[in-house]
């Protein structure tokens, strides 16, 4: 096929179209004006104007995480690019495929401290999976296609393409995606068969097996989640999910133990601690999951399946590490397990389940809803109950409300849970919800947030109004940075240094000022009606719920403690202090 | 785990010779707190635009495994080879060593240079610049002996390494 010569901007737009991109989240500026001009002239690709570049990346993340596609961001040079850095780091930590186009000053000005110049590739090198500076127009089309390949294959992640203005204005040849082959980057997807056989033999001989699964399963796709469910039911073992893995396995299933980790369930963490064979699938032994490494699952053999070799043996040494795509490996595992007619010893498995039922009997997530004040957990549970008959997507910000949402909202399907797990970015929730609602215009999108987190990207209310995105934002308002307050209570002698929200806006008036509805609720008796009212409104809503300001998030594995030393909270009225210097230095 | 012993490894990395590739490698080491004892880089295949980076690092077996996995997943990296584990290998380094001295010390430095097969590549009435090629240990030994003889400046290339026999990357 003969090369077509277009303008640089036309090449960029053509490449986006050929990559199947439907929507771009962005914010214009001097260096990207040629691209915005091109966007103006066409109808194939929709542009959603955010109000801050960080929000553009979070929106793209929400879009990507809820669809399985690549999220696309367009920002200008200098401050546009530096504002995007938090979002890029967030996407890197949570392995979310994002392609971020940044404007750059013309090539002849690079390095001259020109107006709105920043060393974007230098700044974003450690917070992207890969980045490019396009200095040669001949490489523009190839770079665009390569970036989508890198962002979406292997362990997904954010990719930045820095585009100098002269490249966008000048002529450049276009080539189709099929004409581009990557020279070096071709990740392994198929697991080594001998290792899979060895792993299954180990699993079949287990007496106390557990499956510990993470966001990698969701990244592998809906098919991988189906295979995981099939495999789990076939072998009869208990399964736990990480924060990023919620939805990979149906929460209502009896083999599901709940979330694992710092605020995971008692039964999950005890099972992790006492298991004899652990199979980690698309999970990376994060410190929020493992607690104190010296006491992590001390009597277990471990099998780990991950597409990223560097995730294997990073924090926790494993006995068998299988490099491959979770979906492919699970497919092989199911075939081989059936072919070899493996079965975990039924008596051993029964007594393991008996033990687990004992832990379940603690009802570690239980709470009492009094008549006078709304418990934050109750809000999550009621929203869950009242949205059950709808297709619902949940995003969160970061802190106590995030953990309560993870604990109390039962996720049955993948792609319905968007949260900032690795980086823990306050301000993620509302922009991520924008991305989700753009991708699923007819679905119910709820953003659970806190009174502190919501203030960190509050400007996106304007975007919600502009695009009539009917996002339901539920603030669990305890007038504190709740998780900070909880740690100060537990570790710093209840000295609540700077964690009180002294001057919060009136969220009803604020909503009205942005052009949509604001609701409040402070009476437990009104909660259901207010939630229903919120869900019935055909437009954005902020619901400000005044919740118990002293409520702590339990269960909790304090930093530096092993899984079997959880604080349950129930017996202690939340007044326990942790006497640990070691814990205090950890985050 | 008994594997807490720290050992030194020489790792060869074949990369695309593109801008920023060295920064990616160095950034990976500093960002993750790994050690670089020596690092060399030069283009080895001009037609394919490929460079070879040789890095000497140290760590526990788990850390070394991490370093190799982390290097392998960089997009412009073609191959990573741990020469220390791959089999016998040859390691060479070049050093230029300036010695400023007169009289007996000057003569003594020449005698030692002769024993080490170091060449004087520059000479004035009161100085020599020696060029020495060898293993890093040999160069260390040479420098140590020159220290009391007027050693005043050292420039070392860092290690270039390749496996012995027919084995290739």
From TrEMBL, chain A:
Its cofactor is thiamine diphosphate; Mg(2+). Its EC number is 2.2.1.6. One of its GO terms (cellular component) is acetolactate synthase complex. The keyword Flavoprotein applies. GO terms for biological process: isoleucine biosynthetic process; L-valine biosynthetic process. Binds 1 thiamine pyrophosphate per subunit. Binds 1 Mg(2+) ion per subunit. GO terms for molecular function: acetolactate synthase activity; flavin adenine dinucleotide binding; magnesium ion binding; thiamine pyrophosphate binding. Keywords: Amino-acid biosynthesis, Branched-chain amino acid biosynthesis, FAD, Flavoprotein, Magnesium, Metal-binding, Thiamine pyrophosphate, Transferase. It catalyses: 2 pyruvate + H(+) = (2S)-2-acetolactate + CO2. Gene3D superfamilies: 3.40.50.970, TPP-binding domain (3.40.50.1220). The keyword Nucleotide-binding does not apply. Coiled coil: none annotated. Belongs to the TPP enzyme family. This is Acetolactate synthase.
TrEMBL record, chain B:
PROSITE patterns: ACT. Pfam families: ACT_AHAS_ss, ALS_ss_C. Residues 10-85 form the ACT domain. Keywords: Amino-acid biosynthesis, Branched-chain amino acid biosynthesis, Transferase. Catalyzes the conversion of 2 pyruvate molecules into acetolactate in the first common step of the biosynthetic pathway of the branched-amino acids such as leucine, isoleucine, and valine. NCBIfam families: acolac_sm, PRK11895.1. Dimer of large and small chains. This is Acetolactate synthase small subunit.
């Amino acid at each position: 096929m003969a090369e077509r010569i277009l303008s640089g901007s036309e090449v960029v737009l053509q490449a986006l179209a050929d990559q199947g991109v439907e929507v771009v989240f962005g914010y214009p500026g001097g260096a990207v004006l040629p691209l915005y001009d091109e966007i103006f002239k066409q109808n194939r690709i929709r542009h959603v104007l955010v109000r801050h570049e960080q929000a553009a990346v979070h929106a793209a993340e929400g879009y990507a995480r809820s669809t399985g596609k690549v999220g696309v961001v367009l920002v200008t040079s200098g401050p546009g690019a530096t504002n995007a850095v938090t979002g890029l780091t967030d996407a890197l930590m949570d392995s979310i495929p994002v392609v971020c186009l940044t404007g750059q000053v013309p090539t002849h000005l690079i390095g001259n401290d020109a107006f709105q110049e920043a060393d974007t590739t230098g700044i974003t090198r450690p917070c992207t999976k890969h980045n490019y500076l396009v200095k040669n127009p001949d490489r523009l089309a190839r770079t665009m296609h390569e970036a989508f390949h890198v962002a979406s294959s292997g362990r997904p992640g954010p990719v930045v393409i820095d585009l100098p203005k002269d490249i966008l204005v000048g002529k450049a040849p276009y080539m189709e995606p099929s004409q581009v082959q990557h020279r070096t980057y071709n990740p392994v997807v198929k697991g080594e068969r001998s290792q899979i056989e060895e792993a299954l033999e180990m699993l079949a001989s287990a007496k106390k097996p557990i499956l510990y699964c993470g966001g990698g399963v969701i990244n592998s796709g809906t098919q991988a989640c189906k295979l995981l469910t099939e495999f789990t039911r076939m072998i009869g073992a208990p399964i736990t999910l990480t924060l990023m893995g919620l939805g990979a396995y149906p929460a209502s299933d009896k083999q599901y133990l709940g979330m694992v980790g710092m605020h995971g369930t008692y039964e999950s963490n005890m099972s992790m601690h006492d298991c004899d064979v652990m199979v980690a699938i698309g999970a990376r032994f994060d410190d929020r999951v493992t607690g104190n490494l010296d006491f992590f699952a001390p009597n277990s053999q471990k099998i780990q399946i991950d597409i990223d070799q560097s995730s294997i043996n990073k924090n926790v040494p494993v006995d068998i590490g299988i490099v491959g795509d979770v979906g492919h490996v699970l497919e092989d595992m199911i075939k081989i397990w059936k072919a070899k007619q493996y079965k975990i010893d039924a008596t051993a498995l029964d007594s393991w389940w008996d033990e687990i039922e004992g832990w379940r009997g603690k009802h570690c997530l239980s709470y009492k809803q009094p008549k006078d004040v709304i418990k934050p957990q109750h809000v999550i549970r009621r929203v869950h109950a009242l949205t059950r008959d709808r297709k619902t997507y949940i995003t969160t910000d970061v802190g106590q409300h995030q953990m309560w949402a993870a604990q109390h909202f039962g996720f049955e399907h993948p792609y319905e849970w968007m949260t900032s797990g690795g980086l823990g970015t306050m301000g993620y929730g509302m922009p991520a919800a924008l991305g989700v609602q753009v991708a699923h215009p007819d679905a119910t999108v709820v953003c659970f947030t806190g009174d502190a987190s919501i203030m960190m990207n509050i400007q996106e209310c304007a975007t919600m109004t502009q695009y009539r995105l009917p996002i339901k934002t539920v603030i669990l308002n305890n007038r504190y940075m709740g998780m900070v307050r909880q740690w100060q209570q537990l570790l710093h002698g209840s000295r609540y240094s700077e964690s009180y929200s002294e001057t919060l806006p009136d969220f009803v008036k604020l909503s009205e000022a942005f052009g949509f509805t604001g609701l409040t609720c402070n009476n437990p008796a009104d909660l259901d009606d207010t939630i229903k009212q919120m869900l019935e409104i055909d437009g954005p809503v902020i619901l400000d719920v005044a919740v118990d300001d002293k409520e702590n998030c339990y269960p909790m594995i304090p930093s530096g403690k092993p899984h079997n030393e959880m604080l349950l909270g129930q017996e202690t009225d939340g007044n326990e202090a942790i006497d640990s210097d070691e814990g205090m230095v950890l985050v | 785990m008994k594997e807490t012993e720290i050992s030194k490894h020489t790792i060869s990395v074949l990369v695309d010779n593109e801008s920023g590739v060295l920064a990616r490698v160095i950034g990976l080491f500093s960002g993750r707190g790994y050690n670089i004892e020596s690092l060399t880089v030069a283009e080895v295949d001009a037609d394919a635009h490929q460079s070879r980076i040789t890095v000497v690092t140290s760590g526990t077996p788990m850390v070394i495994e991490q370093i190799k996995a982390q290097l392998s997943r960089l997009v412009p990296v073609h191959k990573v080879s741990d020469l220390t584990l791959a089999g016998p290998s040859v390691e060479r380094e070049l050093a230029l060593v300036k010695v400023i001295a007169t009289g007996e010390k000057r003569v003594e430095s020449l005698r030692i240079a002769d024993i080490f097969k170091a060449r004087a590549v520059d000479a004035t009435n009161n100085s020599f610049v020696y060029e020495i090629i060898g293993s890093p240990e040999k160069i260390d030994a040479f420098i140590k002996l020159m220290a009391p003889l007027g050693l005043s400046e050292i420039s070392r290339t860092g290690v270039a390494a390749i496996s012995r026999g027919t084995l290739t990357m």
